[in-house]
Amino acid sequence: MALNFFVLLAIYFFIRGLWDNPGRGAPIYLAYASMGIGFMIKGPPAVLIPALAVGIFTLTLFDRSIFSRLRLVSGAVVLAALIVPWFATMLSLHGDEFKDHILGAEFRDRIIHDAPFSLYYLRVTLRYYLPWSLFLIAALFVRFTTAPRTAAAASDKNGCIMLLPETLKIRFTELREKDHQPFLFCLAWILGPLLLFTLFRIEHSRYMLSISPAI
Length: 215
Known about the structure:
71% of the residues lie in helices and 0% in strands. By secondary structure, it is mainly α. 22% of the residues are buried.
């Protein structure tokens, strides 16, 4: 529960900083602080989950102003200011036992293991979030199968989608419009942890609790 609390807190402050108070840095710095505190309590997922959600959203939107509002360099400084002293203190208190836990159990053992690839987390998302997962499927169906509002959206100037079929160009362009950005952000929030834990191949259904608000 601590992991989900700090993930949700970080994403909340990112949303406040990107939309509600785009000219202020305080919400963004609070988001990074939440990620740092979450890392000290529950390890890398507290940083990776919000970073992936915001990262996928930002790359899909391809709005350069968002990169500046995210304050990536100063945000990294905030993370380091929280994590490095904590890491040094724990290392001095517990020595190799702590180092082996962080570098071994939290990093190496989550990435390097013999578990086969599966769609476990996709099944978890669909099954454990019933009936809301059905609403998500319906929303995706409506978004990507209804007739496009305008063909003008196909003239997108971003090269990142130029290789897509014409209909998908229109869909993605419409999805990046301001009125649809909350929906896009929720998709990024769901997709980030889903991809992350599927690639890690560690099957713990509780890891998907962090996407509850998005669904």
